[in-house]
Amino acid sequence: MQRARLLNVIVVFTIVVLGVWTKMPLAQDALTIVTWGGAYEESQRKAFFQPFTQTTGIDIETRQYSGGLKELREQILSGRVNWDLIDLVSSDNLAACREGLLQPLNSVSLLTGDVENDFHERAITDCGIGQVIFSTVVAFDTRQFTGEKPNQIEHFFDLETFPGKRGLQRKPVAVLEWALMSYGVPKKDIYGLLSTPRGLDLAFKRLDQIKKHIVWWSEPEEPITMLSSSVVSMTSGFNGRFFDARINQGAPIQTIWDGQIMDISTWGIPKGAPHSDDARLFIRFATGSTRLAEITKYISYGPARKSANAAVGKHQQTGTDMRSYLPTFPPNYEKGLTADQEWYSHTQELIEKRFEKWINDK
Amino acid sequence: MLIRLTIVTLLGIVVGIVVAFLAISFVELVLWLNDILLVSPRSRMLFGNGYLLSFLTVLIPTVAGVITALILQKIPEKRPHNVPDAILASQSLSKKMPLKTGVLSSTAAIISLGSGASVGQYGPLAYMGSFIGSWISRLFGGNYYLGTIGIGCGAAAAISTAFNAPIAGLIFAHEVILRHYSLRSFAPITVAATIGYLIANHVMARPPLFRIEHFQLETPYEFFGFILIGVAGAFVATLLIKGILFSAATNKKVMLPAPIKTGLAGMLVGIFALQIPEILGIGKELLRFSIIEDAFTNYELASILFAKIFLTAICLGFGFAGGVFSPALLIGVLFGALVAGSLDTLAWYERSHIVIYAICGMVAVAGPVIGAPLTTILIVFELTRNYDIATAAMVSVAFANLISYRVVGRSLFDIQLVIRGFDLSLGRDKVIVEQRKVEDYVSTNFLSLPKDLSVSEAQQQMLEVEKSEAYIVGENDIYFGKLSIRQTLILMSDQDQSEVRIQDLAMQKALQLAPEESIWDAMIKMEAFVGESIPVVENGYLKGVVFEATIVSAYLNTIHNIREEENAAG
Q1: Which end of chain B has fewer CB atoms < 10 Å from its terminal CB, N or C?
Q2: How many CB atoms are located within 10 Å of the residue B345 CB?
Q3: Chain-chain contact of A185 with B292 (C-beta, under 8 angstroms)
Q4: A33 and A142: one domain?
């Protein structure tokens, strides 16, 4: 173990020295990282980008995108690849890897520490290294439920005990899983059952019960406004947004962790990226336990490795203990389900068609 | 005493560890095959719909049937070994479980299960545990009782690992395999079951095979419903048992090569799966749907129930390798859900959640099929950790077993053994003594006399060697009959008779035995026998004799061994 660590240090040191020596003079040789902008990019800047430049002398330039593979595909087809590293949702990473748009990554030589046991079981794929975990959750307006508070995913479908409108994204993501969970189906069986016509029927049957009370949303900040303005009493949304509304803005919002559908944000290197070696060096740096724990000071996304979760501390701005706000906090994690992106990538068309038909029925 | 205790405990530990890892590998391998062979719904969904999927759905089980049959041709009996063979091995004390047959049977079971045949995995798992246990006990230099303990430990570890249910594993080994509770075997089997549970639960962190959330009983009157499920469940179990037996009997009458027959059975599975894809394999999804209210109409439940009984009977009867317990569990769950659905048509009947009825149905069908009411109750209790459900299940299984015992017998296993000639309901002593053959007890310490001697010459010779009985033979020991000293005395008292040739007097019709007859047969024939020895005759030639005393002592020895095993404390 000691020897492995020493070896790691030597490898990093050598790469860093070589990197500094070869790259420093060429200012235009900055590493181009494509990410999502906003508070998320800000947190990455503080936890990953700035420390990386300080340590290695390699500058980082960022580009913003909103997911999808269109632009990456175009760059590779035209032969003019100018992205070095992309922050991809895991479904895009899997799809891009299948299409041959990404470079294969050897996780064992690339990463630090006990890769096999420390990372989340779905974090490491052929062309992707998972970094942080975010989730789609249900949150409610605490002002509307003064007595018994909803704390299980089936309460989302229980209009009798917990009245009020329900906010839902107009996309068949997470909601079908929740519908089946409300029947008491164990989490590990969800995608098996959703793969049968009967399972889908049951899920939509459950949605029928709340259909008249659904308010649809499409932009990620809408759930917050819908809750604050009392348009709905409960809504689906992203855990980072709910955290921000509650902690930074003091909104009366509480998250139900039961049934959270987690997804992994992953790094991927495009085929033909101009600075592949630097990109690899960055992945090694930014997926280390210290860096992953560091990012939780700025945003409520859970590190994709256990050792980093153990080192989570307080929120930089408010001093809030971050642990219970992360999807990967063990009590939250146990209640959740990691989205089966392989399932999503194969069934998207079919499920979306069915979903739209259901919305338009009656 | 202390050494023996150490050896049996060590045996429990070793068997527990080895079997637990093998059982986990078995289950994982089947799951993996289910994914690549388009059995699991998720893999079918990812594959995408279309003609190719339909084609492969029929092709895969067909090919798997052919492969299974080809593997089974390499087993001497040309059939997969299973739980009944483990029962027989442990009941008969002397029989070992052959390793090669075990490996071939388990491989055939993995292929059958992996390709979606309607067979179960717990039987093959318990059997695999047993033959591994038997094999390890031989490495320990085991005598007959160590062999039996090894078999019990293996079965317990396998069931404990597969269900995450150590107590059920322990009871299964005693209730189904050993059929007695001696202290000597109890300790190592407990050790093996616990190790299986620990490895499944902690070392490998395996999730339980199916989980059931907590539910409560609404009214005490529902126990009448559970009794009803028990009574009716016995008949569903009977239908399944009779179906499997009928299918197996039909298979024997169809004069086609085995690979073709099993292949056709596989094709039938595929064709059914085109209509009801969930019917493939162990049916985990069906099991889950059955405990959701309103997931099925009563009509759907009834159709799937009969389709599953039909396909299970076809698969097991026509040569697929696998168990009957998982199909029985599934059929039972479907049946319980159907009863709950039917009771809903009675406006005045208030019922609890469907899951309680489904579980009562599950035990009411599975209990009788494997003849293990205690094991099934404990499986329910350990899986649900819920007293209400376990108590309800207990009532159903008690009535189901009571009735099915009267209608068909103790279990499918016992009936299959009777068909092979071992009737355990007549006692272990009979099974063991039936397996001991006369030829092993033949003595050549007897007097044979040529057939053309006179009575006086014969008497002379008998007196010389002090034998009261002699056997009359012709050329090459052709058997003519038996002569007793008493007969010669009577004949000699009459002057005219003393020179008669003995071949004319021989008691041709007197009792004789064939070498392949069992000691049990010999005992039955001996009931009205007076004399010392009985001739053993094969194709008309005299092979030797067996003494009455030998047979009696062989029987007493067996009884002694059984008593020692069943009452041993250490």
Answers
A1: N
A2: 8
A3: yes
A4: no
Chain B nearest C-alpha distance from A205 (Å): 10
**3-class SS of residue B437:** strand
Q: Is residue A98 part of a domain?
A: yes
How confident is the model over A48-75, as pLDDT tens digits? Answer: 999 999 999 999 999 998 788 889 999 9
Q: Supply the pTM of this predicted model.
A: 0.81
A346 inside 8 A of chain B by CB: yes
Q: How many structural domains does chain A have?
A: 2
Q: Do domains B2-203 and B433-557 have the same CATH topology?
A: no
Give yes or no: residues A127 and A269 share one domain: yes
* CA max distance for chain B: 102
CA distances from B474 to B17, B258, B450, B502, B503 (A): 62, 47, 6, 11, 9
- How far is residue B362's CA from residue B332's CA, in Å, rounded to a whole number? 4
| Torsion angle (degrees, nearest 10) of CA B333, B334, B336, B339 | 180
Question: Is the pLDDT confidence value at A18 over 60?
Answer: no
Q: What is the pLDDT of residue A27?
A: 44
Let me know whether A215 and A346 are in one domain.
Answer: yes
The 3-state secondary structure of A115-175, one letter per residue: HHHHECCCCECCCCEEEEEEEEEEEEECCCCCCCCCCCHHHHHCCCCCCCCEEEECCCCCH
pLDDT-based confidence at residue A269 (cuts at 50, 70, 90): very high
**B335 — pLDDT class (breaks 50, 70, 90):** very high
Token pair for residue A328? 């990967």
Structure tokens at B389: 């459900």
* Strand, helix or coil for residue B294: coil
CB proximity under 8 Å: A 180-199 to B: 183-186, 188-189, 191-193, 195-196, 198-199
Domain spans of chain B? 2-203, 222-424, 433-557
| DSSP line for A178-225 | HHHHTTT--GGGHHHHHTSHHHHHHHHHHHHTTGGGEEEE-STTHHHH
Q: Over the stretch A274-286, which tens digit does the pLDDT of each residue have?
A: 999 999 999 999 9
Q: Which domain holds residue A119?
A: 2-133+264-310
Q: Compute the distance between CA of residue A111 and CA of residue A130 in angstroms, rounded to an integer.
A: 11
Band of the pLDDT at A28, cuts 50, 70, 90?
Answer: low
Between CA A247 and CA A253 the distance in angstroms is: 9
pLDDT band for position B153 (50/70/90)? very high
Lowest mean pLDDT among A345-354, B61-70, B398-407: A345-354
Please state whether beta strands A337-338 and A234-238 pair in parallel, antiparallel, or not at all (unpaired). Answer: unpaired
Give the nearest partner residue to B207 out of A188, A196, A346, using CB atoms. A188
> Which is more confidently placed, B499 or A8?
B499
Which residues from B are below 8 Å from A202, CB to CB? 289, 292, 295
* 3-state class percentages of chain A: helix first, strand second, coil last, to nearest 5: 50, 20, 35
pLDDT(B209) > 60: no
List pLDDT tens digits, range A186-219: 888 899 999 988 999 999 999 999 999 999 998 8
Q: How far apart are CA A270 and CA B194, in angstroms?
A: 51
Q: Is A318 domain-assigned?
A: no
Q: Do A92 and A21 fall within a single domain? A: yes
Q: Which residues pair with A238 in a beta bridge?
A: A136
- The CATH number of domain B2-203 is 1.10.3080.10: yes
Give the span between the Cα atoms of B47 and B63, in whole angstroms: 20
B364, B229 Cβ separation under 8 angstroms: yes
Task: Give, in words, the CATH class of B222-424.
Answer: mainly alpha
Amino acid A346: pLDDT: 84
Q: From the list B42, B213, B284, which residue is nearest A184 (CB)? A: B213
| Average pLDDT of the residues of chain B | 89
Provide CATH code, domain B433-557: 3.10.580.10
